[in-house]
Amino acid sequence: MMLCWGLHLLHALSWLLVMSTQRVTSNCGPGFKKGKSGCDPCPDGEFKSKSSSSSFCTICDNCGEGTTQTSPCTKTSNIICSCREGFTRRHRFACICDKGSGVDSTGKCVKCEDGFFNNGVDEKTTCQKQKDCGPYGVKVPGSATSDVTCYTATEGGPGQTPLVTASSSSPTLKKSTSAITLATAASMNQQLIHRVNSSTLPSWVTTQSKATPAPASHYYNGMVALLITSFFLTILCFTLIFKLAAGLCLNRFKKQIVRADTVCRKPVEESGDKSSSSLVSSTDSSQTFEDV
């Protein structure tokens, strides 16, 4: 019995040894892929770094922005990229020039000098000069990553008097500003009328320019009155047309009655000898009967 178990165990071990040997011999080494008749080398631009039974190789990568190629792609290894001077690695094949730095003429990423800034992240951006606030002055100083903020004309910088605008929150200031605006508009209107009067335009043009335009309510009332008048005139016209049509129909009806009455009357006795007449009135017949 023990001998039988020993034989079965030996057979299983030998089978495992054969299978593992076949599996090892069926793999292709680095730089080769499984082909129809054996192992074929990886084509150009592809690589395979480990032994396997795969029939495919991996496509080589390319170095991205902000990087330089350190080692080319081979049959057994991928390309190796390194960041350019001053750049920060974003991922394996790309590097960036961070905010506060810019790319100089040599392609290096350097820190922005005083008075310059850069808030972008790119391999091509350069440091920009900060704006000049002029007489208004700097409200918020700039930095290597942001531009300066200047005072506006309405705010007024150091030593500047802020301008008064109509958006002030004081009601008295709003009223005074409105009054000044209206006075200025009235003055300009008077000057325009004076210029028109002093020109060579006809008198009727000058008179019309001096006339005060009617308020909008007058135009509205006039429009309402015009609509009401038009409505009543329309009703009157329809009434007259109806009466005229009714009169014409009544006259035609009367004529038809007269014609019908004429047709229904008794025949008129013909002139001449009564004995030769084909029609004798009922009165003559009665008179003849009495004579007899």
TrEMBL record:
Residues 274-286 have a biased composition (Low complexity). GO terms for biological process: regulation of cell population proliferation. Residues 268-292 are annotated as: Disordered. Disulfide bonds join C42-C57, C60-C73, C63-C81. Keywords: Disulfide bond, Membrane, Receptor, Signal, Transmembrane, Transmembrane helix. One of its GO terms (molecular function) is signaling receptor activity. InterPro entries: TNFR/NGFR_Cys_rich_reg (IPR001368). Residues 1-26 form the signal peptide. Residues 41-81 form the TNFR-Cys domain. It comes from the Eukaryota. TNFR-Cys repeats lie at residues 41-81. PROSITE patterns: TNFR_NGFR_1, TNFR_NGFR_2. The chain crosses the membrane at residues 219-246. The keyword Zinc-finger does not apply. This is Tumor necrosis factor receptor superfamily member 9. The gene is si:ch73-361p23.3.
